Amino acid sequence: MGWNTLVPAETLAIALGRADLVVVDCRYSSSSPGAGEYAYEHSHVPGAVYAHLERDLSDMGRRGQGNGRHPWPDAQAFTAKLGRWGILPKHQVVAYDDADGAMASRFWFLMRALGHEKVAVLDGGFARWRAQRLPVDSELVRRPATQYVADFDASRLLDAEQVQARLDQGDLLADARPADRFRGENDFMDRVHGHVPGAISRPYAENMHEGRFKPPGQLADEFRALLAGRSPQQAIMMCGSGVTACHNLLAMERAGLKGAKLYTGSWSGWIEDPARPIATG
User: How does residue 1 score in pLDDT terms, banded at 50, 70 and 90?
Assistant: First the structure.
């Protein structure tokens, strides 16, 4: 069956060296965009390749077109990256970042949207890997190139107009940003502060407890309360730029609630049109 949501550090350590395993380091910091790659070059999970949020997991050339701060990439461009990393549909892929899984979850949902089932996030990230004194390496990995052929499931990727239409039909829109940014306070990322009218706040940090994801049952209880009788397919996740929203998508799937959608442009895409309404508080 493979791992398709989370994998513990101890379990991944046992699997290192498996021919069907590809590990992807997704460490990234918005305050220092090169820091994650620098950290990878000095120490990483043995055999891991590196994926940069802006260079590999986004299409920065599409900024300013309603696509937000980290535009969702074209499928052909992203699958070309997978090919360069030596990833095929048959592979078990595990992504990780520093700790909470926010960047790794973006990679996880990119793969999920392609239909790749065997992809998981390292629970607790590199921080827990190091805390467990598991092996690390500094060798820069170059896997044999392959060709990955797939397309994104467009039904799970929504733009602003589709989000508004679904809100009008009673669907749920949950915002993964911290609660103060949702209210329109302490936002140093976007020039306009607030949230999409009708959205509710679900900070992605609430999926975590002591550096790891909460148990599936607890996540299920919390997200069912948010759904308030809706199906998971009636849920849309957003954040500032379509990155940390994927953490909520991962948490839902971990809880057995599959099929939620992503507003790819998220808040930074919403505010690119000054005519769109804004709520605060």
Answer: low
